[in-house]
Amino acid sequence: MTVALTGFMGCGKSSVASCLASLMECPFFDLDDIVRVGEGASVSEIFRNRGEQEFRRLEYEYLERFFALHGGEDSDSVLALGGGTIINPECATLIKENTLCVYLKASVDELVKNLEIAGTSGRPLLAGASDLHGAVSSLLEKRSPIYESCADAVVGTGGLSSMEVARRIYDFVKTGLK
Ligand code: S3P
Known about the structure:
This protein is an alpha/beta fold. It has helices at residues 13-24, 31-39, 43-50, 52-70, 89-98, 108-118, 132-150, 162-174, and strands at residues 2-6, 28-30, 77-80, 99-105, 153-156.
C-alpha cells in the first residue's frame, strides 16, 4: 500500500513522510523530487519556462508512472505529494484509486511560520508574495474542501513534531482501514 500525504505548502509533508517511512520500514518518495529529477529542472524552472499547466500535467504523468512501479498491494511506500497535486481532478482520481491518502491539516499561522523558516523561493505560487499570510489564507480557503474530500484521514499538525504526526498516521495505517 502507498500512503500519500497531501496538504498545503509548509505543512510538513516531506518531513512527516520520512518519519512515517522509518516507522513503516519502507521507502519514501517526494513527487516534487521525482518531477525535478525526471525533468532535470527545478519546480521553479518548470513554472517559469513552461508554465503551471505543464507542471500539473507532469505531476499527473509522473504519478501514473509511480503507481505502475509501486502501486502493488504488497509493496509499501510513502509518497509526499505536492501541495497542489490533488487539485487536478485527474491526479485526485489516481490518488484515490491507488493510495491511502492523509491530509496534514495545519492552520494558516502554522503554515506561514513554517514557510517563513523554509523560505518561499522554491515555491513559485508564493515566491515574492508581499502579504504571505493573505496569500496562504486565500489559497488555503479554496483548497481545503478538496484536501478534506480526497483524504481517507485528516491529521491536525498543530503543536506536533513530524514524528508525532507520523505516529498518528502509523496508528491509522495499522488498523488497515483500506
Ligand atoms: C505547489 C506546491 C509545491 C510544488 C509547487 C506547487 C502547490 O510543493 O509542488 O510549487 O501548488 O501548492 P510543496 O507542497 O511540497 O511545497
